[in-house]
Amino acid sequence: MSDLIERMKAENIGFFYGNKQTLKDITLPIYQNKVTAIIGPSGCGKSTFIRLLNRMNELIPNTRLEGEILLDGKNIYDATMDVVDIRRKIGMVFQKPNPFPKSIYENLSYGLKINGISDKSFIEERVVRSLEEAALWNEVKDRLNESALRLSGGQQQRLCIARCLSVQPEVILFDEPCASLDPISTKRIEELIEQLKANYTIIIVTHNMQQAARVSDYTAFFYLGELIEFDKTEKIFTVPSDKRTEEYITGKFG
Amino acid sequence: MLTNRIQELKKEIIEFATHVENMINKSINGLIKRDISLLNKVIVNDEPVTNKFELKIDAHCTNVIAQYQPTASDLRTILMIFKIGNDLERLGDEAVNISKSALFLVERPHIKIEGVDISRLAEESLSMLKDSISSFVNKNVQLANDVCLRDNIVDDYRDKSLKNLINYIRQYPSSVEQIQHVITICRKLERVADLSTNICEDIIFMVEGKVIKHAFNQ
After folding, report:
1. ipTM of this complex > 0.90?
2. Homologous superfamily (CATH) for B2-208
3. Is A210's Cβ below 8 Å from some Cβ in B?
4. From the candidates A238, A239, A246, which should be mutated to test the interface with B, based on the most B CB atoms within 10 A?
5. How far apart are alpha carbons A253 and A250 in whole angstroms?
6. What is the pLDDT of residues A132-156, one digit of tens each?
C-alpha cells in the first residue's frame, strides 16, 4: 500500500515563450492515486507546467519545450502519440467552469460520442456513473435535459468534472478549480478531489496555499520557473527544507 | 478531510491511554503479586511504546494544524489531544518509576505498615485515570469535573500515608531504604491522579471552551 507508483513524470522540462524561459529544468514525479499540488506565486510557471502535462501549450505559437513528459514511461510528446488519446487519458478541469451550452446530458455524452461510442445504453450508464462520481447526480437526475448553463457555478464545475470523468481518464489536471467558487462549493470540490483519488491520479494547481495543504498528498513549490522543493505535503507545511519555501508558505513573500 | 483526521487522532489517543492504563495496572499488580517479570515488562517492553505513541501524536497534531488551519472546537480538540499525549507519556514514565521501586521491594521481605495501603491508593488513582479516558471518549464534562474533585481524596490519602511511613522510619531506622521506595510509589500514584486531573481539565476546555485549571478550587 505504501508503494508509490510513478504514473507520470516530468523530466528536465524547460519551456520557452520566444526567448524567454518560463520553466527551468523541472523534474517531478506524479504518483498514482495521490494528489499532487503545485503552488507558487503568480508567474512562477505553475499553470504553464500543468498545461504541458496534456499538451495544452503546443498550440501557442513561438514556444519551445525541452525535456520529456512521461505517462507510464512513454513521452507524451513523442510523434507516435495521439494527442486526442492523451487528452482522454489526462483530463483537465479549468479555473472557470466551462460547460458546453448544451443540456446536462449532452455535456456528458459528447466526449463519448467523439470517441466513437454510439451504444446508447453504454452512454447512458456512463452519464449516470460520471454524475454520481462527481457528486452531482442527486441534484440533476430529474433535469438532465435542461441547459447546463442553468446550474450554479459550483454545480457547473462539478459537471465539468463529471464531463472529464465520462471518458474514463487516468489522470486529472485541475487548474485552480475553485478560483471562481464560493466557500461552500469550494469545500464540495475539495471533498470530491479527496474521493476521486482512490481511482485517479490528480494534479492540482492552486494559488490558495491552504487548499494545497488540505487536499494534497505531495506538494511542489515553484518559484521563478524553477522547482524549489517537492515533498510530502505534511513535510512542506511543517518543516520545509528550502528557505524560500519556508518564506513563501509563511507569507513572507509572494 | 479534517473531520476524519480528528477522528484518527482521537483513536490514537484512546489507544495510547489504554496502553498507559495497562502499564500502571501491571506495575501495581507486579508489586502486589511480587511478579518480577511483569514489572520488567513495564520497564523494558511497554515504556518504549509510549515514546512512539507520543512522537506519533505530536507529528500528527502538527500536520493537521499545518494542513487544515482548524478553528474553534476543532482547534481546541487538536490542541488538547497534543497536551493529553504529553500527559500520557508522563503517566507511562510514572508506571516505570513505580515498577522500579516495586522491583526493589519485591526482592526483599514484605513489610506491613499500619495505615498505608498501596492498593487502595492505586485503586483510587487508577479509577481517576479510567474516568478521564472515559470522559474523553464520551465528551462527558460532568465526569471530568468529578475526577478533578477526587484529586483531593488522593492527596489526603497520600499525606496520611507519608506521615505513617515517616513514623515507621523513626521506629525502624534500618528500613529507611525500603520505606523510601514505598514513599516513591505513593508519590507516583498521587502523580497519576494529578495527571488524570490535568487530562480532565483539558477535556473540559476541549468540550466547553472553559478554562478551569489553577482556579478550580476558588
Report:
1. no
2. Phosphate transport system protein phou homolog 2; domain 2 (1.20.58.220)
3. yes
4. A238
5. 8
6. 999 999 999 999 999 999 999 999 9
